[in-house]
């Protein structure tokens, strides 16, 4: 555990200095160096997270942590015990037509090398991809209602893990506020709460217990 923590802190120190993508706006936004069997992967930070210094620190984060609170886990506990990553760690900037710009394929690939290393270090048992961009890195289906509310066995950077996707908690999204999104979100959270990695992380149960 101590060696993994030291490796993770060294990794984050290097990540904090990353400047591989000239189209991105820094600083690099990272979660805490939590040695965890749960890996949450967001999409990319918004315009405020860089100043605040942590992912999901604005409106979407309030909704996300309300979801986890329904499982009895508050924001502080989640941030301290789950490794919070993202498809891209810098703010992509605004789209001329409105909204945040979607990172391009090259930016995703460059930042993906950091994710690859995090997967190698942590060997997560449970991956929670949040939002379509994060989900698309490991699962392929045209619609969220074909993905949300299920446990998927995935190979992510060559590592086998369970993935339980969540919709993006953006205030602009209505998907999780109407059916079937409401029911599928509730089912996804139920599955997360029952997962052995979640029970071990937050309830001290044996991760190998069925």
Mean of all residue-level pLDDT scores: 95
Shape: globular
Q: Can you name the CATH architecture?
A: 3-Layer(aba) Sandwich
Radius of gyration: 16 Å
N-end to C-end Cα span: 24 Å
Order of helices and strands: HEHHHEHEHEEHH
The CATH class turns out to be Alpha Beta
Number of helices: 8
Tally of distinct domains: 1
Name the poorly predicted regions: none
β content, as a range?
5-15%
Tally of DSSP β-strands: 5
Helicity, as a percent range: 25-40%
Quick one: CATH superfamily? Uracil-DNA glycosylase-like domain
**What can be said about the biggest beta sheet?**
5 strands, mixed
**Broad structural category:** alpha/beta
Order of strands, widest sheet: 2-1-3-5-4
Question: What are the defining features of this structure?
Answer:
Uracil-DNA Glycosylase, subunit E; five-stranded mixed sheet; single chain
Helix-strand layout with pairing:
Layout: H1 2-15, E1 38-42, H2 49-52, H3 59-69, H4 75-81, E2 83-86, H5 105-122, E3 126-129, H6 132-135, E4 152-156, E5 159-163, H7 181-194, H8 196-203
Parallel strand pairs: 1-2, 1-3, 3-5
Antiparallel strand pairs: 4-5
Helix pairs in contact: 1-5
